[in-house]
Amino acid sequence: MPRTARPRSTAADPAWLQLDRQLCFALYSASLAMTKLYKPLLEPLGLTYPQYLVMLVLWEDKPLSVSELGARLALDSGTLTPLLKRLEQAKLVQRRRDSHDERVVIVSLTAAGKALHEQALAVPAELACRAGFSTDAAGLAEIARMRDSIRELTRRVSTAIDAQRTSAR
Q1: Is 90:73 a contact under the CB 8 Å cutoff?
Q2: Chain-centroid distance, C-alpha 122
Q3: Per-residue pLDDT tens for 10-45?
Q4: Distance (Å, rounded) from C-alpha 60 to C-alpha 55?
Q5: Each residue's pLDDT tens digit, 141-169
Q6: Which end of the chain is more exposed for a tag (fewer CB within 10 A), N or C?
Q7: How would DSSP label each residue in the chain?
Q8: Which of 96, 91, 99 is nearest to 107 (CA)?
């Protein structure tokens, strides 16, 4: 992809280096705040926030390989493996080697992991209420718009990263 000239903008203005103008810091702060808000909701389930994310994927899908799970969560195996070990020690998941390819580790829910799904059903609505959203149609639509905006940002940043990789070759 050919490089195009960058349009002139006010982005070179020193004021853009102020912390409160940084999109990255707004996202970082929002992520920290969300994790803190989730913590008391997940403690009764015996889950940390990253473990909750793993369980969300497993509750909606069939058993997955560690690499599929990592791709879905955007986590590398070095991060995912300790999470899975703790979930396995808690008897919520089981890991086993694929019978067709022993290099592949399959992760599936145990009966206890499946049962935990029922307890977790209240978490999203409670989180929405604590974050100041209503759980009526308007509130859910607002949450969906925010989520979709963040997904669009993620798509744009991922596209930029892919372009950087391509131009570096």
Answers
A1: no
A2: 19
A3: 668 888 899 999 999 999 999 999 999 999 999 999
A4: 9
A5: 999 999 999 999 999 999 999 999 888 88
A6: C
A7: ----PPPP-GGGSGGGGSGGG-HHHHHHHHHHHHHHHHHHHHGGGT--HHHHHHHHHHHHSS-EEHHHHHHHHT--HHHHHHHHHHHHHTTSEEEEE-SS-TT-EEEEE-HHHHHHHHHHTTHHHHHHHHTT--SSHHHHHHHHHHHHHHHHHHHHHHHHHHHHHHHH-
A8: 96
Between CA 129 and CA 106 the distance in angstroms is 36
Cβ-based burial of 102 (10 A; exposed 0-12, middle 13-18, buried ≥19): exposed
Tokens of 124: 């999203």
DSSP 8-state symbol, 6: P
Side chain identity at residue 28, one-letter code: Y
- The DSSP call for residue 63 is -
pTM of the model: 0.86
Residue with tokens 């997904």, as numbered in its chain: 151
Amino acid identity, residue 86? R
